[in-house]
């Protein structure tokens, strides 16, 4: 009896399995077990015929159809989803854990490294300064382009203020081969990868040099040579697409992963849930980075979901997740770096929730002072700003100073004003581009329409704006 | 009208009995190869007749007993092999059973399997086209609900999982929006997905990805990101499946620039158009018809070749005529041909055009035909407002108004969600008589009273 009780537990050499696998049956030593012990070792109650010669394997898989009697020998049972322990207590799992998932950070609010930080990466001067410089560039880009929209020179703009660390530090932790599918608040990734300020401006003005050929609203950047998918307005549609990209990378056996970004609001979309589920089931190397910035236009996260943020949702889908301080560039760098390693090596998805605050308005079509206190905005802008936080750390290390700061800011400002001027001067895309790229090769009706339009413009040239080329 | 004995659609197989729920429907056993599905229905037992003289009876019994012992032995041996394989991949007893029983059915490989060398069902045509394209290009892969282990909800992907493995034939979780988005992403990167919707009615749950992600991406990205994807599945009315399983989506998808919409009728159409769709670098919506899957059509030797491909954007003139043009697509082509036969007996020579391609629409062929016959009837199964017929009518008025001798008529489905009862369903979908009446009206051959019918 004691022996039977001892053996009822899973044997140490075999992990818990749903069905007896071929490998287990053929494991060395397994066949040596006396039939009576073997039945126990498999975690099943022995059948009456256990003393008979070894049974045909055909009955092994049907074992789980034989439900045990009501005896104490078994406290768990195979369901299609696997073994589950029974309990005789009726209780509902709480909607939230006792403690919220802790948030990983490396620097404190004033830029001091924490005493017992788990940060292990070597961020040398060159990299640190580059990260800081790009964060400043991004910040200034936002300020100047936002102003240009306010002056009527652009139709629309959307800033990344407050989320510079997530943008630049995550991009720095990735490799150029990693395919990025952004939402729309991640131009910093492109900036890091070498997109020039002129190229940004061209897209904003929709001129003939725009890689998007003037097809899209401002801030809908895209560049296949930078592995940055064109921004698409509907929320969270990029998430399942990222899983598809990751699946393709897996099939190609590339040393790369797909990385996709979303906001806290995007996690309410059906696509978010479908894509996490899919990524887990297909075991695809994709990193989901959620910029939890507290606001989805005017919807505060209290009205968005009632869970413990976003990181907790990863577990529901079987995905490893982490919560990180999104305003701490080093923490973001660390988390994304390790996430990438795990994702590519083990071919699994990872979910990163980066806590941050959206300092700017949702876009130029929004005035956020209407739904949130100005004090709150100023607090995050002045006391919890990711750019100043990293600056203090970089300065403390002796890698930066006020003169460098002034030099950088003046330089960038000058560049930005120049590129805006240049982009404004360039012509708009020619009319022929209206009909291209609908299909790989234009269909006959489009060719016909293009011909008719060109003919009409030629005949009635007085009725058409002169600065739009044909 | 009330009885089920009339089969207006002239199918070679009886209609499938089905529930309004999304369970895959059991197949009618049309050929020996399809009786695998009957495992899920009542098991068929083989009967042995025992009519023989009494003197021979004991020997007959002995013979039967010996035969049973032999068969039993063979079954046990096969069971070991099959069950061991199933057990190692975690199969449930029902699949084990069906796998074991498969031993006694003719082998059904993924290759073509048709009763005679020159005829093929639409199902076989689609299966062979998928098989050949997957074999020719390793980037092509199939995903959808039930396409793998279940062999396809309508058995279109039979044998493909076995042949190509789970990396290329993916059984997906139940999320149309999810798997459509995943497929679009895979297409963005480098693969060529074929996405199966169990029925296009469920594509509405994924329509944002079809339109906003697939159709528009090449344009929005200015050629940087194209989407070589095919969305396929049954479309339109089946038999007794109710409103949420019977809508025709031809006009929905065909109104969107960036998509191509194909609708095959015969097996040759199915093979040629599916191959063309898979090879096309643009997103293609491939609308099949559940009731056509079991229908057999003759196929030419050319169509059986693995490089066979039909051009996208070209209609086919199924039957030449000179008095009235009838345009149709998908299942309705069969009805139109029947109507043309009836009209021929009454001295009206109808030209039947099988559109094949709804977007791009072959306006040249349609207009050339109307200029020849001077009369046009458009027939479709879907709702009349903003339908395919409306587009054809406008095109003809724009290009060939002077050639029309009669107003263009469109015959379409009733402007109601599809009812379930068989008699109501019959009245909600165009029948052969409706086409005949419309053609006669166009030829000014109908009586005054029939005009309103």
Walk me through this protein's architecture.
The complex is a heterodimer of chains A (470) and B (453). Residues 4-19 and 45-50 of chain A have low confidence and may be disordered. The radius of gyration of chain A is 29 Å and the shape is globular. Chain A is built from 16 helices and nine strands. Chain A has 470 residues and is an alpha/beta fold. In chain A, strand 4, helix 9 (270-282) and strand 5 form a beta-alpha-beta unit. Chain A starts with a helix and ends in an 11-residue tail after the last helix. Chain B is α/β, with parallel strands linked by helices and 453 residues long. In chain B, strand 10, helix 11 (332-345) and strand 11 (350-354) form a beta-alpha-beta unit. The longest helix of chain B is centred in the N-terminal third of the chain and has 32 residues, at 57-88. The relative contact order of chain B is 0.10. At the A-B interface, helix 8 and helix 9 of A face helix 1, helix 5, helix 6 and helix 7 of B.
- Provide the structure class of chain A: alpha/beta
Going across the major beta sheet of chain A, what is the strand order? 3-4-5-9-8
Write down the CATH topology of the largest domain in chain A.
Answer: Rossmann fold
Proportion in β-strands of chain A: 5-15%
Domains of chain A, number: 3
CATH superfamily of the largest domain in chain A: Thiamin diphosphate (ThDP)-binding fold, Pyr/PP domains
Oligomer: heterodimer
What kind of sheet is the major sheet of chain A?
5 strands, parallel
Report the largest inter-chain contact.
Answer: A-B, 62 and 59 residues
Q: What is this entry, summarized?
A:
The complex is a heterodimer of chains A (470) and B (453). Chain A is an alpha/beta fold. Chain A is built from 16 helices and 9 strands.
